[in-house]
Amino acid sequence: MASGAVLPRLLGAGVRAAPRGRAAPRGRTLGSAAAAAAPEPERDSDLSARILSEPLKHSDFFNVKELFSVRSLFNARVHLGHKAGCRHRFMEPYIFGSRLGQDIIDLEQTATHLQLALNFTAHVAYRGGIILFVSRARQFSHLIENTARSCGEYAHTRYFKGGLLTNAPLLLGPQVRLPDLIIFLHTLNNVFEPHVAVRDAAKMNIPTVGIVDTNCNPCLITYPVPGNDDSPPAVQLFCRLFQTAVTRAKEKRRQLEALYRLQGAPGPRPANPAASPGAQAGLGLGVAP
Amino acid sequence: MAGSRLETVGSIFTRTRDLIRAGVLKEKPLWFDIYNAFPPLRDPVFRRPRLRYGKAKSPTQDIFYHEDQIRAKFYSAYGSGPKAFDLFNPNFKSTCERFVEKYIELQKLGETDEEKLFVEAGKALLAEGVILRRLEKARTEGSQVSRKSEPMGVESQTALEENPPLKEVPQPQHLEAPGEESKGLSPP
C-alpha cells in the first residue's frame, strides 16, 4: 500500500523510525527529458504491483514448511494440553484425545494451521506491515520482547489499557498507524479470561494469529494455531518460528526490490554482484514447489 | 477511514469485503489480498459458547493402548519399579516399559496365559539383572481411600482408628499403613 509505506511508524519506542522511501527514479534516456519522466512512474508502479502480486501466486513462497515438522513440535511438547476439566468446547475439534485426563492436541492439524499462520505472517511482513506480539504471561515477557526487537517488530506484554486499539487516536496520538497483524503467544490474560486485544482486533478489522491452548476460545482468531502455550520449549519454538518467518520475508522483499530495480533500469546504476545471485537464488527458492 | 466494529456479526474479511464493495472503504487493507489468496481453514466468525446439558458428552476420546493393561498389572504388583524416572531423556525406558516389552515379546512367541506371561516376563527381567520387589499389600481400588488419608499425619492415626463403622474394609490396611510409612522412612 503506497500510503502505508510513506507514513512513518509511530507505534512503539522508535524501533523503526525511517519511512520506507524509494530511491530517486533513474532510467534510460529516451532522447528528451520530458519523455524520460513519463514512463518512469508507470514502470515504478508496475514494478511495485509485480513485487506485491508475485508472492501470492505460489502456495508457499517463503518456504515456511521447512521451518518445523511434526516431530519437532512433539519434541517441544506442543501437543500437551490442559486437563479435561479445563477444556474449551470450541477446542474439541483440534484435540486428538485425552490421555489419563490430560488433553493431547492433534499435531497434524497443528502443522497445517501453523503453516498457514507462518505463511500469512511472512506475507504481511513482506508487504511492510506492522506486527504486534501480544502476550500476558509474565514468564515469557522478556523472551517475546526480545523476539520482537530482533525481527524489527513490536511487542506488548504488559497490562493492555482499555482503548488502546479502539481509542488509539486519543491514547497514542492523532495519526497513529495501527498494527496490520497481531500475534498472540498467549490468548488468555492472567485471570484466564480471553485477552481484550482478541476482541478489539476483531473490532478494528485487524487479522490475528494466535497460539490457542485447550482452554482458549479460538473463534475470533483469524489464524488459530492449536498448541501448548505453557511449556517453555513450546513458546521458545513458536517465537523462533515467527521470528524466522518475519526475517525471511523482509530479506526476500529487499532481494526482490533490488532484483526488479536491476531488471527495470540496467543503465546508470552499477549491477550489484552480491545482490543478483542472492536474489536469483531467492527467486528460485520461491518458485520451486 | 471507515470501518465496522461489529465483531459478533461476520468475519473481518466479510465485513471489509462488503465495505469495499459498497464503496465506503476506499483503500484495500494490507492483509486483504493475502487473506484472499490464503484463507484460513475456518472462517473466524464469532460463536457463543453454549453449555452442554443433560447426557450430552464431548466427543473427545480417551487414549488407551493394549499395553496399558499390562502396565496396570505391573504397577499394582510392583509399584513404580526400582529405577527412578528420568523425564529429561526423550528415549528413556522405565522398568515398567522394559517389562511391557518383554511381555509382548513372549506373547508374540505364542503364550496365551496371562499369569504365566506375567511371571515369565518378571523372570526375564530378573535374568537381565532387574530386581522387582513386590508391594507389601496388594493395591486395590479400596486401598485408594486409605491412601488419601495417609498424608493427614501420624497424629490423626488415633482419630482414624476410632472410626471403625465408617471404613470397615480398609481397616486392616489402615493399621498397616502407618507401619509401611515408617518402613518407607527408615532406609534413606
UniProtKB/TrEMBL annotation, chain A:
<protein>
    <submittedName>
        <fullName>Small ribosomal subunit protein uS2m</fullName>
    </submittedName>
</protein>
<keyword id="KW-0689">Ribosomal protein</keyword>
<feature type="region of interest" description="Disordered">
    <location>
        <begin position="21"/>
        <end position="42"/>
    </location>
</feature>
<dbReference type="InterPro" id="IPR018130">
    <property type="entry name" value="Ribosomal_uS2_CS"/>
</dbReference>
<feature type="compositionally biased region" description="Low complexity">
    <location>
        <begin position="21"/>
        <end position="38"/>
    </location>
</feature>
<dbReference type="Pfam" id="PF00318">
    <property type="entry name" value="Ribosomal_S2"/>
</dbReference>
<dbReference type="GO" id="GO:0005763">
    <property type="term" value="C:mitochondrial small ribosomal subunit"/>
</dbReference>
<keyword id="KW-0687">Ribonucleoprotein</keyword>
<dbReference type="InterPro" id="IPR001865">
    <property type="entry name" value="Ribosomal_uS2"/>
</dbReference>
<dbReference type="GO" id="GO:0003735">
    <property type="term" value="F:structural constituent of ribosome"/>
</dbReference>
<feature type="region of interest" description="Disordered">
    <location>
        <begin position="263"/>
        <end position="289"/>
    </location>
</feature>
<dbReference type="InterPro" id="IPR023591">
    <property type="entry name" value="Ribosomal_uS2_flav_dom_sf"/>
</dbReference>
<dbReference type="GO" id="GO:0006412">
    <property type="term" value="P:translation"/>
</dbReference>
<dbReference type="GO" id="GO:0005743">
    <property type="term" value="C:mitochondrial inner membrane"/>
</dbReference>
<comment type="similarity">
    <text>Belongs to the universal ribosomal protein uS2 family.</text>
</comment>
<dbReference type="InterPro" id="IPR005706">
    <property type="entry name" value="Ribosomal_uS2_bac/mit/plastid"/>
</dbReference>
TrEMBL record, chain B:
<dbReference type="InterPro" id="IPR059242">
    <property type="entry name" value="mS23_dom"/>
</dbReference>
<dbReference type="GO" id="GO:0005739">
    <property type="term" value="C:mitochondrion"/>
</dbReference>
<comment type="similarity">
    <text>Belongs to the mitochondrion-specific ribosomal protein mS23 family.</text>
</comment>
<protein>
    <recommendedName>
        <fullName>Small ribosomal subunit protein mS23</fullName>
    </recommendedName>
</protein>
<dbReference type="Pfam" id="PF10484">
    <property type="entry name" value="MRP-S23"/>
</dbReference>
<feature type="region of interest" description="Disordered">
    <location>
        <begin position="138"/>
        <end position="188"/>
    </location>
</feature>
<dbReference type="InterPro" id="IPR023611">
    <property type="entry name" value="mS23_dom_met"/>
</dbReference>
<keyword id="KW-0687">Ribonucleoprotein</keyword>
<keyword id="KW-0689">Ribosomal protein</keyword>
<dbReference type="GO" id="GO:0005840">
    <property type="term" value="C:ribosome"/>
</dbReference>
<dbReference type="GO" id="GO:0003735">
    <property type="term" value="F:structural constituent of ribosome"/>
</dbReference>
<keyword id="KW-0496">Mitochondrion</keyword>
<feature type="domain" description="Small ribosomal subunit protein mS23 conserved">
    <location>
        <begin position="2"/>
        <end position="129"/>
    </location>
</feature>
<dbReference type="GO" id="GO:0006412">
    <property type="term" value="P:translation"/>
</dbReference>
<dbReference type="InterPro" id="IPR019520">
    <property type="entry name" value="Ribosomal_mS23_met"/>
</dbReference>
